Structures are given as structure tokens and as C-alpha cells.
Amino acid sequence: MFPKVSIIILNWNGWKDTIECLESLYQIDYPNYDVIVVDNASKNESIEKIKEYAKGEIEVKSKFFIFNPDNKPKKVIEYTTDGLESKNENLEKYENLDSDRKLIIIKNDENYGFAEGNNIAIRYALKTLKPGYVLLLNNDTVVDNYFVKELVTIGERDKSIGIIGPKIYYYDRDGKNNVIWFAGGKIGKWSGKTYHLGRDKEDKDIYDEIKECEYLTGCAILLRRNLVEQLKGFDSSYFAYYEDVDLSVRATRRGWKNVYVPTSKVWHKVSKSTTKRGKKFSPTTIYYITRNKILFMKKHKSKFRYILFIIYFITYRNAQMFMYLLLIEKDTTLLKKFYQGMIASKPFNKS
Fold it and tell me: Three-state DSSP class for 120?
């Protein structure tokens, strides 16, 4: 049995990465999936270029695969945000096509962020496509041929597993593609900081055990349908960053397991949509990570633990970021965004 998987890719001005991701997906060894590209109101020619790719008019070059012209053109069905509830006459013909010959594009009327942008597609998929699983995938990734099959296999073995994630490598780390970016996640009990297990280590048969973990990154996660229906997807108030950590914690509290599967593999270009080349942080990243870390701790910690966190944050973390952003990065814009994120979280207001 191969339960249906709806694969959702969020695009924002990143069509070159998106079509490389799509080409790798359309070569996977899994027979029952749909691909949905959600465009978050891109300001460039993203939608046109993605449709050109679907027609077979753009040959995608990558060090990870050889372009396949034989599964094109693809049938493309387009929706606007407002039109998702209306019946599409082409859907019946679409459903009869092979998985690698079809594509759904949802054109959002504004940038809803990572959280709600994905939620829009999740709600559509659950209602219209009726999958057993929803798979969220960053557009700046390339996947292994067995990526989906390995995740689903583990999910089918244990119905208490709600979220399943792969081993994720850097797309290119100093010319290498075997350097780990994510092999399961931990959350700092008092700091709220997230930790990527295995990060920056060359994969020499390490982190090769299937295991439960505290959180899985939204870069690439398989979600069981029942879990998504129960938790209603991401908390959209996060916009971007920490929504995946929040989802993992909420899942655990409802009795679901978060499981890391090392035989499923992905390569990630890392923060292409928000960070300029050569910069560790962008203003957008600094603002939302700062704001959302505080929101996360406020939401999930007791009043006592939250007070201890705030004391840590406005003393040690504040001083640490001030020194780093002003003296090392020498970027007052980033420092300003750090403080704006802190203020926006309303840190002293915990109900």
C-alpha cells in the first residue's frame, strides 16, 4: 500500500530553486503523490517560470540528478486564494494522471509567511485531495529518490507517529554534499534555543538510527493527516520561524511522536529566501527569530520558567547580541531589528 502524499512547496521569488526542487521530486520512487506549489505573492516572474518548467521549456541542471524530459509537459491546475473553495472542472482529469505528470499552483494574494502560506495549501489538500499524509518541503531543497518512501514506511509501521523528518545535508558545504545540517532537533529547556543534532559534521555513518526527538524542522516534514486535522496546522501568529518547533511540542503534548528517519535524505541550500549571500543573518531573520522565541516560551512554559527565561534574555542574551551585531557584524540595522522583535513579542505580558 502506498498512501497518498500531498507535497507542499512554498515559493517566494525563488523560482530557480523551486524548479530544481520540483525536478528532484518528480524523480522519486513513490507512485502516489500530488505536488502543490504555493506562491506567496512573488514580485518576480516565479509563476510564469514554474509553468514554463512544467511545459518542458526549461531544462534544469543540477549536480544531484539528470533532467528528465519524458515526464513533461505536466498538467497544471491553478487556483487563487479566493478560488480554492470553488470547484475546478479539470480536477477529475488531473486525478487520473500519473503523479509525475501533474502540478497544482496556488497563487496567494499576499505574503502570508511560512506558517499560514503552508496552512492554506494544507487545508486545500485535506479537503480536495484527501491524502493520508501531508509533506512540507522548502523550495531550496533537493531530495533523494527514496526520500518519501522511507518516511512513509516508518509512518505506516507505527500509527502513533505524527511527524516524521529526514536527515538533511547542506546542499554545498565547501564543495561537499555530505555535511549534516539537521539530524533531529533539541530545544533548550531554559533558553528556548533550538539545536540541530549533527550540524556541521561530515556524515561518516553517524546519526544513522531512527529515533524520537523533541522537534523536527519544517524544512522537510511528513505530517500524518490525523495530526494535522487535530492541531489545525501551524500557528500562523509566528509568520516564519519557530512554527515548526511549536507544532512539534503541541504534537508531543497530544501523545504523538516526532521521529527522525536517517534513511530519508534531503539537501538544503539554507535560508535562501531571507538571507543574503555572505550574511549569517538578515533583518527579517533576526526580527522573527527574536520575536518568536519569546512568543514560544510565553506560550509553552509555566509562569515561573518564563520569568527565568526573560531574566536570561534581557541580560545575557541581550548583551551577547549587542556585542555580536554591533562589534562583529557592525550592522546597526540588524541590532535595531533584534530590539524591534523583542518589543513586538510583548515580553512582560504573560497571561
Answer: helix
